[in-house]
Amino acid sequence: MQRRIRRRYAAERRFRVLGAGAVILSAAFLGFLLFTMVAQGWRGFTTTELALPIDLHAAGFHVERARLNTPAADLALASAGLEDAVENAATSAFGPDGATLIAPSAWTVLRAAVKRDPAILERRTVVRVPASTAFDRALAGEGTPAMKATVARLQRAGMVVRGFNWTFLSESDSTDPVAVGIWGALKGSLLTMAITFLIAFPVGVLSAIYLEEYAPKNRWTDLIEVSINNLAAVPSIIFGLLGLAVFLGTWEIGGRVFGPMLPRSAPLVGGVTLALMIMPVIVIASRNAIKGVPPSIRDAALGIGASPIQVVFHHVLPLAMPGILTGTIIGMARALGETAPLLLIGMRAFIVTPPDGVTDPATVLPVQIFLWSDEVSRGFVEKTSAAILVLLAVLLAMNGLAIYLRNKFETRW
Amino acid sequence: MLGRLALIASATLALCACDGNATREIRVVGSSTVYPFTTAVAEAFVNARSGRTAPVIESIGSGAGLRRFCEGVGAQFPDIANASRRMTRNEYDRCQANKVGPIEEIVIGLDGVALAESNQGPKLQLSKRDIYRALAANPGGRPNQARTWRDVNPALPAIPILVMGPPSTSGTRDAFVELMLAPGCLEADPEAEALRASADPAQFDARCHRIRDDGPYVDKGENDNLIVQGLAQNPNALGIFGYSYLEENQSRLHGVPIGGVAPSYGTIADGRYPGARPLYLYVKTRHLKAVPGLKDFLLLYANLWGPTGPLVKRGLIAAPETMRATMTDRIHRQIPLDPADLK
């Protein structure tokens, strides 16, 4: 008797230790991931700028004022040699290798400044331009000794300015790590998610309602249920192949070619493909939520004369909503982190401008991370981690919303 | 109610999708080696005049890129294919079967396939013959038994052979095989010349083109940064990748001299280092009229590919001056590719 009790206590302790161990292990993995990402990524949110004194008038740079207010202003400034003028100013301000210290895109900063305030053309002024990747790497402690010496010299002269990298949050992809931004990919992700939600949510919820409340229970509905459960487990790459074949494929029917239904690389085709992928998840979650509404609610509503559709839309659906929304948001979070199907439908592209609408070419956050991780330049390492932090923040916000909605609308019986 | 509204909204969205092709952006697909140069030009193209539609560049590999390029003409097909090898006769015929019409072939410059090791490495000095004996699957027709570099050549140190390189789908690996392994085979194996001339190309292939898969050659996937990281962690290993990666990581890696010549801009440009290959753009002539800005894009490319231009700073090796002039002329006069030149 005593021995059996001791054994039961021992089993209890073993189980507790194992459970706590599992939690600690997963927390340690998560902590390690977060720690490495933050340690590598925080510099991605900072920028190094150089205070560049420039006197365009004395440099003999000349542009007709009248052209600055026209759409041809960019062309006028470029053909007047603004790029060379900026490089010359850098050489005279920072020394013989000055042109290698500023980013190749530095002249576009000055171009924007001139368009804002043409008076810059006439007087000496100081503009803050982004430093080159080599300079930024040297500041981070990895670079040639010559570059490190230059960095120290300019820091003593007070010409190096560090600050928060707004460019990273407002720009799109670039080949130069100091000029890249995440906004293009984030906007692409948001547009794709909007399309996914608009298609997957109504279709998924309506089919769940039909299957739970109206469909007769027979072999056909069993078959449908098994198929939906199967679809939820199908690898995402297969949905990518499906999207490629159906939405971007061409068919020849009776001698006429029917061409791709949707534009390649656009959030529209990405959203539709991801909607197909997460629809089974939404159907399953919604059916479980609808099943969880007590039959007494339906009976009472029917008893006071409500029609079946009134029962569903006035009583069952509102009560099932927290469960449905939680399932939907978890599905959406999966879609947000999805890469494989999007690679196939052309969303792994280099695009310098953010998309203006759902039919413009775009890329999404996880694909952007994938593209940056493959870049040659060393500066992209920290940008990749910074992009991962942005993705984690968006995921955290979505899951937080799921918890909030569940707590807000949850009813206990 | 909510569901019904959303359904209507999604239906309307699906309807507006049809006018997506009104003014189309430039579309480029293909090689991951050419990708960094084309993206740099695309960025300059948009920077030169704000408000221009940004070109869309996909990196899917030379073979897949040329396949998509050859699927047809029209708005849904790419305008330009990036390729790190020349188009084959088969691919050209496929293009013509799909009524693509004339194609312009433009060489943008050279790329070097480099062998490199960590700065803490053993400072190996190799020859093409050593590389062949160390990495071929069947050197001299027998399975490769070499485990250390000394097994290959008594003058080399007795450290294990470990080479990290790209997978068999990669153009870089094709170039490595063609430029280093096969010439090493012809040098090392007296029978190879006869095999090459014989009627059965499979035998030559098995002896001179196949890389061993029993451990010493490690396939690191398409991500060249993984090879760079692997070299930093394992000083005795060698890596195979495009020259631009070596240049970018000069502080951690150095090139392995082959036949006494180390990879550098100069030695690759004048052909002394064995790993130089041309990089190509293929452009559909019919699209030049239909896609706005396509010709400007090519001319901008020509402006930037010179020896002092920004593409060279990114690791491109500029083509000789006469070739650059020929290529610029091809863009101006839209001279199409002659299929008789292709293999």
Automatic annotation (TrEMBL), chain B:
Keywords: Signal. The keyword Signal applies. Residues 22-298 form the PBP domain. InterPro entries: PBP_domain, Phosphate_ABC_transporter. The keyword Nucleotide-binding does not apply. It comes from the Bacteria. Signal peptide: none annotated. This is Phosphate ABC transporter substrate-binding protein. It comes from Sphingomonas pokkalii. The lineage of its organism: Bacteria, Pseudomonadati, Pseudomonadota, Alphaproteobacteria, Sphingomonadales.
